[in-house]
Design a protein that fits this description.
Elements (H helix, E strand, L loop, with lengths): L6 H27 L17 H9 L17 H5 L1 H10 L8 H4 L21 H4 L11 H5 L4 E5 L18 E8 L3 E19 L7 E10 L1 E4 L5 E17 L2 E14 L1 H6 L9 E14 L2 E14 L5 E9 L10 E11 L5 E13 L6 E12 L9 E12 L1
Antiparallel strand pairs: 1-3, 2-3, 2-14, 3-4, 3-5, 4-6, 5-6, 6-7, 7-8, 8-9, 9-10, 10-11, 11-12, 12-13, 13-14
Length: 401
């Protein structure tokens, strides 16, 4: 038996079914588009709890099992739950990282800017133990290196092995007016210098230690003040010293070339003079010792592998000098020096040179400017007349590098 429904009734039932399905889909879409918002506990108390709030309270009688923070969306409850934990972690951190330690214990309306000079920091002894930032840095490389910091220095300012103050053949700038008992007043000049090229040693400018390569050169002419400043002679010198210094000890190994030339005016005044070609190419080994920072004792021996004009291979030089190392500014300080120079070519004769006077040491280097008296007795300083004996006394100025 078939049940027969009129066509109008069938249309009515299909409309009711379609309406119910649409209403259900719309409700699901609305529920999924917005998170569930639990009623806020900060709402007006006069309104009383809502039906949803009563449902939640009945559903979760044990508050510790309730993961819902009233008044906030469910997806934000985790960050709020960990605030107290973050504050506890901040309290346990060292002061360097827990910068908001004091502020975290204050209410929002009580937070203020504070500094280490306010009493609020008195209860934190860790601030007293923290060093000041400026104490963590050294003022200069001298404090960083002391005596143990070595490295390469190109064109160093100072020499590790200074020139002998009374050495008659050292490369320097000089002007001396001297009187010789037989030939009268003479002007001994020297246009020269000795400078550092490369050093491997202390990077502390106040600690002169290490190895250093130098170059030197000079041309010391003699002008005859009795003969209208005629040029009597000139000795030329160039050299390459390799020096070492450590503490109170120093050493030198050097090569130098020197050649002597008589002046044209001197030859014209002395027609019978026999011009010579005096030449020395020599190696030198020397050493020095400082029993006191202001006092040096030294000696060196030289051997010429190439000679001409009467020169002989061996020579010996030694001496002592007092030169204060302190930088005394414009006031300066006294100095004295004595040097002995013996040569094989004059049967191990030679000369002794004595200087005494006042010195000024550079404020930013160890360059030395001196004025004083000079006395030299023995064989001449000009090798064009190397067999002659002279006795000089006078006044001079010297600049040593």
């Amino acid at each position: 038996m078939r049940l027969y429904l009129p066509l109008s009734v069938q249309h009515f039932l299909w409309g009711v079914l379609v309406s119910a399905v649409c209403a259900n889909l719309e409700a699901q879409q609305f529920a999924s588009s917005q998170p569930f918002m639990a009623p806020s506990p900060h709402a007006n108390a006069t309104q009383g709890p809502s039906q949803a709030q009563r449902y939640l309270e009945n559903q979760y009688e044990n508050r510790q099992q309730n993961p819902i923070q009233l008044g906030l969306p469910l997806h934000q409850t985790e960050s709020i739950r960990t605030v107290s934990g973050q504050q506890e972690i901040s309290r346990n951190l060292p002061p360097l990282y827990s910068q908001a330690r004091l502020e975290s214990d204050l209410l929002p309306d009580q937070i203020q800017r504070v500094n280490s000079g306010q009493p609020a920091f008195d209860s934190y002894p860790e601030f007293d133990a923290m060093t000041e930032p400026e104490d963590m840095y050294s003022d200069s490389i001298e404090q960083l290196c002391a005596e143990s910091c070595w490295g390469w220095t190109v064109l160093p300012t100072d020499l590790l092995y200074k020139s002998y103050l009374a050495g008659p053949k050292e490369s320097r700038m000089a002007l001396a007016i001297l009187h010789e008992k037989d030939i009268g007043w003479q002007m001994e000049l020297e246009a020269g210098a000795r400078v550092g090229i490369l050093r491997y040693g202390s990077l502390n400018d106040n600690v002169l230690e290490g190895w250093q390569l130098d170059v030197e050169g000079a041309g010391p002419p003699r002008l005859n003040m009795e003969e209208e400043m005629d040029l009597d002679a000139t000795d030329f010198r160039v050299g390459v010293p390799l020096t070492w210094r450590r503490g109170a000890y120093q050493a030198k190994f050097a090569y130098y070339h020197t050649s002597a030339h008589a002046g044209d005016e001197y030859v014209e005044r002395n027609p019978g003079f026999q011009r010579i070609n005096y030449v020395r190419d020599a190696f030198v080994l020397g050493g020095g010792y400082f029993p006191d920072p202001d006092l040096r004792l030294y000696a060196e021996i030289g051997y010429a592998f190439n000679t001409d004009g009467g020169a002989q291979p061996w020579e010996l030089q030694f001496g002592a000098e007092f030169s204060p190392v302190e930088h005394s500014g414009i006031f300066g300080a006294p100095f004295w020096a004595i040097n002995g120079y013996l040569r094989e070519e004059v049967n191990w004769g030679g000369n002794v040179n004595i200087m005494v006077g006042w010195q000024w040491r550079g404020d930013r280097n160890n360059h030395l400017f001196r004025i004083g008296l000079q006395y030299l007795d023995g064989k001449t300083m000009q090798y064009a007349f190397f067999n002659n004996s002279e006795q000089f006394v006078g006044f001079g100025t010297w600049y040593d590098f």
